Please model this.
Amino acid sequence: MTKLSTSAKVYLAMVFIVLYAPILYLVFYSFNSGGSMNNFESFTLEHYKAVFEDSRLLVILINTVIVALLSALISTIIGTLGAIGIVTVKDAKMRNTLLSLNNVLIVSPDVIIGASFLILFTMVGIKLGFASVLLAHVAFSVPIVVLMVLPKLLEMNKSLIDAALDLGATKKDIMMRVILPYIQPGIFAGFFLALTYSLDDFAVTFFVTGNGFSTLSVEIYSMARAGISLTVNAISGLVFFVTVFVVIGYYFITSRASKRTEGQQ
Amino acid sequence: MQTKTSKSALFPYVLWIALFVIAPIALVVYYSLLDLHGNFTLDNYKAFFTSVYLKMTLSSFWYAFLITFFTLLISYPTAYFLTKTKHKQLWLLLIIIPSWINLLLKTYAFIGIFGLYGPINAFIEVFGFDPQQMLFTDLSFVFVSVYIFIPFMILPIFNSLDRLNPTLIYAARDLGASAITTFRRVVLPLTLDGVKSGIQVVFIPALSLFMITRLIAGNRVITLGTAIEQQFLVTQNWGMGSTIAVFLILFMVIIMLITGQKDKGGRVR
Amino acid sequence: MKQLIQATIAILVVSALLMYAANAMSAGGGKSGKNTLTIFNWGEYIDPDLLKQFEKETGIHVVYETFDSNEAMMTKIQQGGTAYDIAVPSEYMIEKMKEEDLLIPLDKTKIPNIKNIDPYFLDLPFDDNNKYSVPYFWGTVGIVYNPSLVGDLDFSSWEDLWDSSLKRKVFLVDGAREVIGMGLNSLGYSLNSLNDDELREATDKLITLAPNVKAIIGDEITPLMINNEAAVALTWSGQAADMMYENEELDFAVPEEGSNLWFDNMVIPKTSKNMEGAHAFINFMLDADSAATNADYVGYSTPNIAAMDLMDEEVVTDERYYPSEQQRDTLEVYKNLGPDYLGKYNELFLEFKMSIR
Model:
């Protein structure tokens, strides 16, 4: 492995600084004793205290995370299977049609998706709430998963499968031992971007939710007119640090574990 | 002999298309044929070909192009360097995490950062320059858009670079190819699928960007996405809003045809 | 492969645990269908303590849902699927909801506290005799400005916006009715004009304002003005109050030619399943104490006279928030324009927006 040059390191550092700057800005103001994201008055922890006293907001946060995790998981499964299906379609025209249909939801503005899903759900008679929100999130996350998995499938070497077949592998073996491990990075990429889609969505969720079920995004957007409270900054800051902590912790635990097993082999 | 499993793999996906893609398209097309009073008409389509909407279409494409170009420009080297870091999977995750924080909040943060009295201008003033107007300019608009899309571009490129066999590069270098030639002839062609997928997931949604056209560009940039949003939520002219959406979908199909894979048949049988 | 399975199991386990936690936390409310009241309101537009007090007094469990635009709210109520018992639309939306038959008439005998409302704000054209609605908050459209940045302009006239010293210094709020209405008002026309010539003239006049316009924005106008990003902004009095609370340099004026008078109102949508509770809630919010507490928290102008007696003297006598009756007479309430003219207003507004480049 070639080492990273200093200039490459500087470049990466710059990218990370820009990516994290607005978040640090948000977190900075979550300690502001003034009421908003302007004029830092003095340091306070009152907004963090407010988070833990506001059980409604905490329930909404938990709901948001549940919907994000489950919708990302389900859409990853559907999308991965879909991508595998698409590459097996021999007819190029048919494949392009499928891909175009795949991207319709990516190009459609949220209000349209939201309004048409609302009409769809009320027509079918699905009760608005957790189930309808989950379904909608699954629906708009599928295409991004397909687009992430597809390039990995396309670059996969056909001879790999031929070799496996020659060695007497069953179809199930090929799927489990050849295809899935190879496209795994694409699957993970799809999953994480589906999480992004779900966590960020406001308009679709707004239309298809109801009966007391709400997500953080819906809450935040509807606060805009009367002013977004710093409690939201505090809760975002908490979520952010917990996520970073979990990710780093999980990474080092698993990488140590896998090193150990490698060592044994 | 593979077809059977593949077909059943396709089943949930086709079901998804039927329920959540075909149904909305049908609805959108239906609404696009209605005028304000619910009568059938083609007036909305006529209205689209007036100068206002054509101008908007052009500007949407222009900004989507700029956004995609700069996103690619920044993401490719980032993805490339990331594959060479020690804990590359961890770093990659750290690229995605910022996108999990609510976009409206981040946009408000950007308004503060770019503001006349924000940290950037404070920094500029240290060097004796006058504060610059950064909000409500093309620059800030493209910057924030690129910010939003960076993870979507980095991920597919990273994935295609990651499996790139380093021996290929050594071989090329051994054979006397310069770093640039190696990149152009060896690295780039092998990562093309990833780049293509990245361009698709940036360009297509960038066409229908809204919200930040108002928050960051102060409506100085007006895109088709903004127009649809307005037609649906303010004018409540679902007909015209749907018509614009029909055109957006058409544009997307054209883009897919241009960038689509031209080779015959899948490699996974 | 092992990794994929592990990840799937991990996600399922975490989700199950979170669901358990969420259930445990919301269990306190008790989800017995009959004694639940679902309120649909703008975010941060009520003092949450009042909701708790209402729950304690009546034993009704309150579910609070939020929306970010009148139109989006109406779509939700129209489609049904959720039993909203109370909604808080603006006045022009009430006319529309009436047309679409989305509202339930109020039973005034269950709302004795309506006597607390200033008679000036009752029986308005958008809802004769307050058959369907009771005012919640009200306000005007005017100009927020920073006196230290605009010389001796005081914005007693809309013409001041066209002053040549304001090059790229003006924020406009992103609303067709507000901006076109301002153009109409500046020419002495009604902001409900249905006259094509007047509308054309107003738009042409607005286009000459383009060089002064810095941006056309939405709710983010509040933090921007607080930070002095622009000298002048056309906005609603409620948001102006928020801005002035944070940035004491700012001032607010409603030009003499006239402007808009707006109301947010409590209504009972036809989706309601707890009419008894909904009436009780409206009556509770009209109580002098709760209305005063709420006005303190939200910072908008209350139509509740009894509440004003309980509030800070300085606030309720401030003519910027509580204009005198004489001033109020120059103000007009938005009328429902009908779909054709609403479309026309938006078209003209779009034309104006495109002229700013």
Notes: The domain at 50-259 of chain B is CATH 1.10.3720.10 (MetI-like fold).
